Amino acid sequence: MAKTVCRSLKFNPFVMKHTLIALLLCSTIGLNGFSQTEESNDTLKNVRHEEPTIDTTIIKIGKHDILIIGNHDSDEWKEFDSLCSKKGKEEFKIHWAGLDIGVNGYLASNNSLSVPQGYDFLELDYGRSFSFGFNFAEKNISLYKDHITIVTGLGLNFNSYSFKNNTTLLSNADSIWAYTDTLVNLQKNKLKTTVIELPLMLGFSTHKDPKKSFHLAAGIVLGYKLGAKTKQMYKIGKDKYKPKVKGDFSISPFRYSAALRVGYGDFSLFADYALSPLFEKDKGPELYPFSVGITLMDL
Description:
Strand 10 (188-205) and strand 11 form a beta hairpin. The chain folds into 2 domains: 3-91, Phosphorylase Kinase, domain 1 (2-Layer Sandwich), CATH 3.30.200; 98-296. It has helices at 33-47, 75-91; strands spanning 3-11, 21-29, 56-61, 64-69, 98-108, 130-144, 148-162, 167-169, 178-180, 188-205, 214-236, 239-241, 244-246, 254-264, 267-274, 287-296. The strands form 3 sheets. An 8-stranded antiparallel barrel has the order 5-6-7-10-11-14-15-16. Strands 1-2-4-3 form a 4-stranded antiparallel β-sheet. By secondary structure, the protein is mainly β.
């Protein structure tokens, strides 16, 4: 099925006080050139009347049709502007799609921020531990009009765990462990993970227009680890070194988290708490990742 994208531009000419010229660009993406042209022409025919009240001009530039309407109060303008507004609302994503920016860390099994005894090398510097999410796809399945929906989609989550201590994690070991580096002073010392995520949430909104709506979504987020690496930085004399080591680090390949999102319009707050441990069973301490922050939406 083809998809219509609408953009509009209005301005007042200097010499014509009561005339408003609107430039409307609608491009259709189809399976081939024939279907694209055909659907574009059908759309324009639906907008134009057999006996328009004003002159309407169509200019073709490549694959695009530019419609110039001489009066924004005309039926042509109102009908076409309504079509574009409707399309914009359909494409606006309210619960998941957007950019997540926040702080991440992990809790022990007793819900403490302190790591278990013997794992001091995993103690975090929360001032440098950040979470970044790029949620690039969202699908809402309506249960009750636009107010109650099932929310799903896809996203990429990047976690950065910054360690306090001057220790180096070892990769591909039978269990997670580290050694203290006494030769250099680590200015940066992080474990970074990349996870692809799929949400399954129940969403609520108070208004048909998402930009005027208070909204809330709660459910679970399923994740699969795409990769992990350590990133460090230190100096020896005037020389700066930035070693990066990719590895397994005994991190669980799958993750599932409880998720909550609440906000208004384009702004939202999020909180995720993993129900599965960060490390594989018997290969590391029982630590459960979490992240909290803001979501900037309207991608």
